Amino acid sequence: MKSLTFRGGIHPPGYKEATAHLEVEKAVEPSVVFIPLKQHAGAPCQPLVKVGDRVTVGERIGESDAFISALVHSSVSGTVKEITKIPDAGGGEVQAIVIESDGLNEVHPSIKPTGDIESLKPEEIVAAVKDAGIVGMGGATFPAHVKITELKDRKIEYFILNGAECEPYLTADHRLMVENPEDVIYGLRAMMKAKNVSKGVIGIEDNKRDAVESMEKAAKQYPNIKIVALHTKYPQGASDQLVYACIGKEVPAGGSSSEAGVVVNNVATAAEIAKTLRTGMPSIDRITTVAGSAIANPKNLLIKVGVPIKEVIDQCGGYSKTPGKIIMGGPMMGFAQYTDEVVITKGSSGLLIFDEEEARIPEPKQCIRCGKCVEICPVNLQPLQISAYSLNNMMEHAEKYRALDCIECGSCSFICPSKRPLLQSIRVAKAAIAEKKRKQNN
Amino acid sequence: MEERLFVSSSPHIRDENTIQKVMLDVIIALLPATLGALYYFRVNGAKIIFLSVFTAVVSEAVFQRIRKQPITINDSSAVVTGLLLAFNMPASAPWWLPVLGAIIAIVVVKQFFGGIGHNFMNPALAARIMLMVSYTGHMTNWVKPGVDAVSTATPLSFVKGLAEVPSKAPKLFDMLIGNTGGCLGETSAILLILGGIYLIYRGVISIQVPAIYIATVAVITLIFGRFDVYFMIYHLLAGGLMLGAIFMATDYASAPVTPLGRIIFAFGCGVLTSIFRLYGGYPEGVGFSILLMNIAAPLIEKYTSPRVFGEVK
């Protein structure tokens, strides 16, 4: 089997051995959940319940009028204790509904199967996905119903599922594809029907042979769905790089994948959609990989939305060493946390605990112009130049070197022998350029 | 425990490579030629190598101490500069020549312009050219390999102004193994190529720059010598071409970082070297060519930005 790929990229150590062969376990039932009203890209939801209300599993507790937003549901049955602000895993604070579980897990009466793909109309699939509050579960958390709504003015040829899971440590998608490939295919077929797309492709890195085989078996009876093995190389799962590897098309810089006639979503999103259509249950839990050098027992856990990570860590045997860093997501693009009071949300693909040694930030030295960052940049930027201009506050030059095209994969910072904060300073430039543009437009 | 958590923006993991490791690889790659220099030029070779490396390291430390900057001699880049400078000197050089050269390389060319990564020319080469122009006699007093230090000529001086190799010229085999007159580290093509293979294998340099540089000289000398392959190979093995192409033109700081820029840079080095050798006043042209291309590097870099992924022109 020949593996496909993109230009550039890096080969970080995988660190996946600890959890790659561990079956997904159900996390222990939480006694209290803190469900954020914004777990997605887009407008935050407003609460639909008051303190003291009784809620059941799958009941809608937050919604928004905005098109780009995702509904929020209760993951337990119990009583609303409080509506308050809690630390957000992505930085800052977020409003959350605190629900004390009664341990009964009584399901809301509205939860019933939506129907079979064949009998459902495209609009009905979109509506079901919207009602279930499903978001892109790879970490981008873009509302799924927006992506699968058919556009009249644009023809989409391919629906691509991201099963690359190129971030080190993470094995949640890997286990999903091995243990539940049928749901991934079912969800993909539903999305293809909703969006009126004829061809489906699932891209998987070739370090997951068992996942490739399992998906191939499940896709056998659908000739319009192709499983593609991809080189194990970071950032293979970045949207544009994935599209290029799978179908050889370049998404225009600054444009969306649909301009190349493609829609991309994550394998976990597809499985979530399948679950919703089959059972009616909205998006209230997800598979999260818990790993890192300072966690006692790394695991792949099916965790309810709103569970504080402290409880998750306890369930994995607690800290094996003094923790130095807690990361939500993968080590390349995830967010470092200042507290273990943040909660699992729809986008939590990973929860990593680093020991102090692994967490230590190396001291940056002078740039030696080795050009490694230029060689590996998957979008062909010159990170050293953008970074130097950014650090000297010469943002118009940083813009000329196309800082805005940076996908923030972090490969440049990773590869730099001088340990320079390349991506970190490029982010500063991007923010400054975006700010300037906003001012100009006003 | 919350107080003790590190919070930083992604990525949270880094490659294990460091500047020290890169420089150590370059030193390892220079070892075969260093041993060759010691074998061929004995005590004189050892003396020059020691003085050059020692002065380079000390002058970097002293300069940084005076400027109250962090002292960075631990990164070993001064050792590399010192070694390369020694490689560019004849074995007969008096003791003060490598000392003066190392000070020029480290203080004037490297530190005056901002230290590691900011030298606009290759420090060792710039120092060599300065010494060459200022002390031409000392810098061109070549000796035969061996204990006796008998005066001799370099292989390139035999073919100066000619389009063929005269019969009294050194044999190709001697030039390959380094048994000929010339600078300490440039005489043995095979030992330098060995080091080059190591650098490419370790990913410190890519094969592009040396390959294009050498190939360009090969093609031009082949045409100039009316397709005399012997003349061409003679030129490839003679003088500082291997040393320059493998270790000097690949200097990170003074070459372009863009892929196309590196190709143009290497091609320019090859063209200039050939022109200087075949038509210039000096027998050798490697040093001048690389320095001239060093100066052109920022300009080349500016106009060779790679096409951004998905960019629509």
Concise structural overview:
The complex is a heterodimer of chains A (442) and B (313). With 442 residues, chain A is α/β, with parallel strands linked by helices.
In words, what does this structure look like?
The complex is a heterodimer of chains A (442) and B (313). Chain A is of the alpha/beta class and 442 residues long. Among the domains of chain A are: 112-279, NADH-ubiquinone oxidoreductase 51kDa subunit (Rossmann fold, 3-Layer(aba) Sandwich); 372-441, no CATH class. Chain A is 30% helix and 20% strand. Chain A has helices at 17-20, 122-131, 144-148, 172-179, 181-195, 209-219, 239-247, 267-279, 309-315, 356-359, 372-376, 383-391, 395-400, 411-415, 422-441; strands at residues 25-26, 32-36, 46-47, 54-55, 60-63, 72-73, 78-87, 93-101, 158-163, 199-205, 225-230, 262-266, 285-291, 299-304, 323-328, 335-337, 350-355. In chain A, strand 10 (199-205), helix 6 and strand 11 (225-230) form a beta-alpha-beta unit. In chain A, helix 4 (172-179) packs across helix 6 (209-219), helix 5 (181-195) crosses helix 6 and helix 5 (181-195) crosses helix 8. The radius of gyration of chain A is 21 Å and the shape is globular. The N and C termini of chain A lie far apart (53 Å). The model of chain A has no long low-confidence stretch (mean pLDDT 95). Chain B is mostly helical and 313 residues long. Chain B folds into two domains: 19-136, no CATH class; 160-301, no CATH class. In chain B, 59% of the residues lie in helices and 0% in strands. Chain B contains 13 helices and no strands. Chain B has helices at residues 19-66, 77-87, 96-111, 123-134, 136-139, 155-158, 172-177, 189-201, 208-224, 229-237, 241-248, 259-279, 286-302. The longest helix of chain B has 48 residues, at 19-66. Chain B starts with 18 loop residues before the first helix and ends in an 11-residue tail after the last helix. The mean pLDDT of chain B is 93.
